[in-house]
Specification:
Blueprint: E1 3-8, E2 24-25, E3 28-29, H1 30-39, E4 45-50, H2 54-60, E5 67-70, H3 78-86, E6 95-100, H4 108-119, E7 124-129, E8 132-140, H5 144-147, H6 155-161, E9 167-171, H7 183-192
Parallel strand pairs: 1-4, 1-6, 4-5, 7-9
Antiparallel strand pairs: 2-3, 6-8, 7-8
Length: 197
């Protein structure tokens, strides 16, 4: 299979009050740490959307092994980033794995289990952690038309819950990796200092 990773990092960080993509983390920035983690999975293509604080964020990146996609309407929520990135997905891709740019510790286990679900023909798949459903998500190419019609924040959840697609829930014996929306989240991330397997 040919799998594209899409890292959503175009947010404006309204709740945090500063670009969370640029927060210091593990000797680099939060976004760079996330990209490095995703690159370690050896996927076929890695796309990173930027938008909020676009120039600063873009200048902080070293685009080696991934492609930057400009999310023109990033203030409309993460759905605009997905829509913007679809045209950059390699035509050979069987589907995409959706990652959050403010969630630097997605696990190899989660990616492997989602990849197995994709290989079994899953139209969509999500991680069922001990404390609930979370990213990364898998969407087959068959779902791209629906993804291309998304509007607003949290819209990707509407695709998952629409009933139009068979969604496989992949059990992951871990807590949902922390994503950073607030200063308190960031402080917890620094305090945990953890990586999931």
């Amino acid at each position: 299979m040919f799998v594209t990773a899409l890292i959503l990092a175009a947010g404006s960080s309204r709740r945090l009050g500063e670009p969370k993509q640029l927060l210091p983390y593990r000797g680099t920035t939060l976004l760079n740490a996330t990209i490095e983690q995703v690159l370690s999975f050896g996927l076929d293509q890695v796309l990173v959307t930027v938008g909020g604080a676009g120039t600063e964020v873009r200048d902080s990146l070293e685009p080696d092994g991934f492609e930057i996609v400009e999310s023109v309407h990033h203030t409309d929520g993460c759905s605009s980033s997905i829509v913007s990135a679809l045209s950059a997905v390699d035509e050979r891709a069987d589907g995409l794995l959706l990652f959050l740019g403010d969630q630097p510790n997605p696990s190899q286990t989660a990616v492997s289990q989602l990849s197995h679900a994709a290989a079994r023909g899953a139209e969509a798949a999500v991680c069922s952690y001990r404390d609930g459903v979370g990213h990364p998500f898998w969407f087959s190419r068959a779902a791209f038309a629906d993804l291309g019609q998304l509007h607003g924040d949290k819209a990707v959840w509407k695709v998952i819950e629409s009933g139009r697609w068979t969604v496989e829930h992949v059990p992951i014996d871990a807590e949902t990796p922390l994503d950073v929306d607030t200063r308190e989240d960031y402080e917890r991330l620094l305090a945990d200092g953890c990586t999931d397997d």
